[in-house]
Structure formats: structure tokens, C-alpha cells
Amino acid sequence: MTVTRTLLVAAGCLGIGAAVIALGRPVEERPAAEVLTAGPRVSSRWRTTVDTLRKGEALSVALQRAGVSPLEAADALRAASAIDSRRIRAGTQITARVEPDSGTSEIIFQLAIDRIVRLTRSNVGTSDWTEKEELLPWSTDTVVVGGVVTSTLTGAIAAGADAFPERVRTELAYALADILEYRVDLSRDLQKGDSVRVLVERQVAPNGMVRPGNIIAARLTVDGRSVETMRFAQGTRASYYDGEGKSMRAAFLRAPLAFRRISSVFGLRRHPILGVTRAHQGTDYAAAAGTPVRALGDGRVIFAGWKGGYGRVIEIRHTNGYVTRYGHLKGFASGIKAGTSVAISRTIGFVGATGLATAPHLHFEVLVGGKHRDPRVALRNVTGEPLAAAQRAEFVALKARLFAQLDAGQPTLAMRGEGVRGTGD
Asked: What's the maximum distance between 2 C-alpha atoms anywhere in the chain?
């Protein structure tokens, strides 16, 4: 038996960027079983049979059900180096094309929405098979989504994102929140009547499945002020910048709880500001017990233990005299103790109700020079690094184009552009 193996990347529409990277957290692929009609489909002309692998079934059994003889199945599977019979999932589509007189001529396994393995008998009537792995192209354009906040950011985007299936709209909101989390505390600052507008890639799979790709530009209006961000490449790497050309990444996050962790628990109608209240010397974030708590910035733990009404509490010293305090914790993350160095966004503990707390929540404080400060004031001027002067002209030109497209709100074919190419952060 002769086996020939090749890899083919199918040519297709290139989206924005030489490499299209999906959102911070990517949308899961739909199992093949959801795409296909249950049971075999047979075409009488060439006796082409389309079926799916059943749970616990051997590949050879599925092939024989599709009309492939036991000997042909054995020869073909020996040639299929790209297929791990122990890991292939139930629901995988199998297409077998059988010639009326000479037997099976082609077998296709659809391993993913955009990936197939094609086995072709090199010489009809022999045991020689050629294996070809093909990556099917996703088409990409850009669309504008968004709306007015009535309850939550996720609700505003979901209501204005008809270009995407409902099941992926929340992930789009979370992806935007991940970009903005260094500039806006979405669980505290967002109010009814604020608005959001997002220019985002729309990726369409060969089978018609739709998912969001990279966020290209966005504008969030919060309490009358605009927070803008856009994707911009430096060399082969793309990052997000604000409207002034400063990196969206800064020395501090604006909230110790990730938006995706609490946005679905509290809404504006259930609590004045998404489960957040102002305390005398800090901010109380209502959240479910066990919700991960993040370090607001790089620093060193100076206290981790029990402290009176705070219950279990962690204190972290940062640069420039900043100290952050996290109280009423259920417990500490592994390795967290006095002297531990922590990186920004590292999980340090978990929301609880220890100390003088009547319900699970996080009590959060910011101290500067030993004095309590409102985080919104203390962190107001903490921004990211600016672009180099040599890149300003390119940035300004790209910003004008992207925000004109954002304001126009019309879907367009994705463009090649230096400003949006490259991999993400």
C-alpha cells in the first residue's frame, strides 16, 4: 500500500489582518452533529453517502455503514495520519463516494467546521490512498453593533447585534469589557442611558456559522464622556489604544472583579449600579460567594489574614505609594501570603462574607500615602504608554477611517490595513 500525504490551505477571502485572531476568550465551535441532518444521506448518481460517527463507535464501523468495504476501510484508515481514532468525536461528518463498479474512490472526514481530511484512492481498484488535509476559509467583513444601556452592557450589545447569533453576543460584550477594563469600571460607572458602539469583524464559516472576530474600534459613552479604543499594529503585533494613541493597558485595572464574573448576577433594576455600592472608605461589590478577586495591579502582598470587621483581608503595596485592600474574603488563592509578589489581574482570593458582612460581597479600598482615596479619582490619570512619535501619523489616519466607519454604521468588506494586521496581545 502506498500512502501520500499533503497539507492544503484552501485559498479564500482574507479578513482584516494577515492572521485573524478571535476574541480574548474565542467562541466554541459547534459540534458537527448540530450542523448535519441525523442519519445517512445518499446520492444515487455516484452513491455518495454522508453520515456521522456515533458515540462509542469505531471509525471502521461508521465507514462500512457508509458503504465502504472492510478492506477499503482498513487501507484508508492506515493512510489517515491526521486522524486520531482515539480522540475523534462523535458527530464527526463522514462522506464516502463509491464508484458503481470499482469501489470507494474518496472518503472525507470533517473534523471541524473549517477543517477536513480527504482520502482519495490514487488508482481505482488498488489500495493506494492519498491523504490531504484542507483548511476551509472563513469569509470576513465588518459590522457595527451596539445600542443604549437600559440594564447592562451585555444587554445593550445583545439588543443591537442582529448580525450575530444570540449565543455569541454575550461573548462580544465580554471581549469589549476586557479591552476597557483598564479605563472603565463597567460594574460601577455604567448607568442607564449610556451608549456603546462597536466596529467588529464578522466571520462566516463554510457551513454558514457566524461568529465575531476582532473588535476593530469602539466608543463607550459613560456619563457624558466618551471612551474610545481601536486596534492598531506595531510590526506583526496588534494592540488596543485609546483615541489619543495611549495603550489601553495601564498599571491598574479599574475593578478587582472581572466584568464577566458579575455582569449576569446584578442589573441596574436590581441594584443602583450593577451590585456596587459606595461605602464610607471604599467600594462594596456584590457578587456570588467564591467569585475570583483580582489584584488591581502589580505589587507585593503586605498582609493576608484576619483583621477585625474586614474578616479575611488582603493588602497589596504597589508603586508610588498605592495600597489596595480586599476584604470579607471567603479565602485566599494558593500561594497568597505576606511577601508574595503578584501580577496585575492575578487571582488573589475569593468573594465571601467574613467579618462584619451580612451577605457575600467584596469590600475594596484604595489608599495613597496611607489615606483613603476614591479609586475613580486616584486612578484617573493612570494611563498606558503612548505610541512612538514615528507612528502618530499612521495612527491618526487610521483612526479617522475606522471611526468614520463606526459612525456610518454600514457593514463593509474587511480591508487589508497595516493598522489592524497582526496577532493580538
From this structure: 87
Angle, vertex CA 147, rays to CA 141 and CA 148, nearest 5: 165
In the chain, the domains with their CATH numbers are: 3-135 (3.10.450.350), 138-250+383-425 (3.10.450.350), 253-380 (2.70.70.10)
Other C-beta atoms within 10 Å of 194: how many? 20
Question: What is the average pLDDT value for the chain, to the nearest integer?
Answer: 82
**Cα separation, 171 vs 383, whole angstroms:** 26
- Cα(77)–Cα(26) distance, integer angstroms: 32
Query: What is the C-alpha separation between 43 and 50, in angstroms, rounded?
Result: 9
Look up the pTM and report it: 0.71
C-alpha distances out from residue 50 to 28, 32, 39, 109, 179, Å: 24, 12, 8, 10, 43
Rg of the chain over Cα atoms, rounded to whole angstroms, equals 27
Q: What is the pLDDT of residues 145-191, one digit of tens each?
A: 999 999 888 889 988 888 899 888 999 999 999 999 999 998 888 88
Residue-by-residue DSSP string for 61-127: HHHHHTT--HHHHHHHHHH-TT--TTTPPTT-EEEEEEETTTEEEEEEEEEETTEEEEEEESSTTSS
Q: What does the alpha-carbon distance between residue 316 and residue 366 come to, in Å, rounded to a whole number?
A: 10
Chain segment 91-103, per-residue pLDDT in tens: 999 999 887 667 7
The whole-angstrom distance between residue 200's C-alpha and the CA centroid of its chain comes to: 13
Burial track 293-332 (b if 16+ CB lie within 10 A, e otherwise): bbbbbbbebeebeeeeebbbbbbbebeeebbbbbbbbbeb
Q: How many CA atoms lie within 13 Å of 128's alpha carbon, on the beta-carbon side?
A: 7
